[in-house]
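ok so I'm stuck.
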Amino acid sequence: MGLAALVACGCLPAKDLSGARCQPETGCGAGYACESDGAGGFWCQVEGGAPDASAQDAGWDGGRPDAGEPDGGAADAGDGGPGTDGGGAGDGGSGLDAGAAAALVGERLVAADFDGDGRLDLIFTDGFAGAVSRWRGTDGGFAPLGAVDAGSSGIRQLVAADFVGSPLADLLPIPSAAPSSPQVLENVGALAFVGRPFPVDLAGRALRGAASLDYDGDGLRDLAVASESAIYGYLDLHRGAGDGGYLGPVRLMWTSLADGGQMFHSVVSTAGDGGTLVAAVTNIGFRYFLVAADGGVTGASWSGSFRGARAVDFDMNGSTDFVAIDESGALEAFRNNGTGFEMDSLLRGTGSTTAPVLAGPVADFCLGGFQVTSNAAGVSLVAVSDSGVSIYPANGPTFYGYGFQDPIRLLDGGSAAVQFDVTGDGTPDLVVISAGDPPPAVAVLSGKK
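replied:
not stuck anymore, here's the structure
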């Protein structure tokens, strides 16, 4: 999708695609060319650069899950139990993948270039109505376009990605009712959408979450899909077939739903160190998988009741981390330490006077480079709650965890927020949606340089 993502919070660098495999018919995105190496391979290169056959990723064996689970699926991969690291992530990394990250700006608000004009547009659901609100990005702002029917009421999550092989981002509304026959809103241009069947056959199971990715680096979009039957839940990978369709699943995990078992709330995917990261957010835990180009899988899990997550390099070390929100509205951080992930604290204050960030419930949150003070350094946290919108300016890493300053109130109301450069001055801004009386309103707060 090129610019379609900018970054989940709009302020971090997009993935470096140099050396990634590609297909001439799909290309690589803005600033890159899909070029032949003269030996039958095609590779993404910075426009004007020369292809290099040595750039091919030979892949590595991350260990494949064992067989023998329900429906012939694979056993749960890489789980060392709560708090243990299944390994798999290496040094370096590239932050967020521009093609996949746009889908998870928030549960109810997505920002992507839906009309292909080079500006990010907005789509928002209030979680109740059967329609979603749209705004076209303009020079420094947004123009309301009115609502469009989303096919179902009670939408708990919006996912923006290419689901049907079109050049523009499509929209996947996921209702709380978890339909067994979900539909994708295919983008037909000018922020207009047409309902289409979900491109993967769920065999009658209910859709619980989905994310778009390209784990094998072939230039074709793959899907990670969470679904549930009456007694089992599944997280599957579906490889892109090249004709707009998808091949049969590679099972990452399954779980029994009996006796209060694991229920999926969302799926997050982003570029990782040595592969593609896929995170499953459930009512009893947070779990990540690192999927190598050859399909090898490693991972780990932590217990807890979570409802959503963001992929963001919050400690700014060049590797993607996760921040998850639990059912109480508090936040937990999962920091990429170079060899895997470890749970970390998000704190405010300094030294022995630190306290957890967001001890109370929040409706939405985002992390990024938006700043309102001159002494903030690093990634700031913006929280949206019933009492308003507040920013926790960054203090950066501390001995006790990742530190933030005390909150500063920005607005008295708000429903969802996202950070990216709206005005084009190179500084991340804050976009806040307030549902209120229809139609919803958009406010843009300019970031401090």
